[in-house]
Input
Amino acid sequence: MSVEIQREVDFEAMPPDEDLVAAVAAALDNSDDAAICIRIVDEAEGRALNHRWRGKDYATNVLAFPGSLPPGLPEGNAPAVFGDIVLCAPVVAREAAEQHKVAEHHWAHLVVHGVLHLRGFDHIHPEAAAAMERLERIVLEELSIPDPYAASP
Output
């Protein structure tokens, strides 16, 4: 498993690299066949990326960009899971505070969420969303993180 972490913003209360890597590992379901880049950005970059790729003109908490092979390369040349996860630090921090969540837990949840997207999971349809949320709960429980979808106090 290869995880590159790019910190493009100086923002207090970001988790250390080892916590981000632990969340990636847990979400990979014991697969080491992965190459993932986590990029932590400010609101301007988060907004620009969300606008360009999703047509939404605001910064969002997490974006996932599954990797793809250049034309002509055989499938066996890429890891089973690869791509980029973008986390917007100010949005993640704001959400954790608003939702009364431990910030480190919210960061881990969003990394897990992003990795699951890279693995092919989505939440477009209700059944798919329920399956993805169920898997997120299982992975986070392995990390001793409470259910992020439970009602907050």
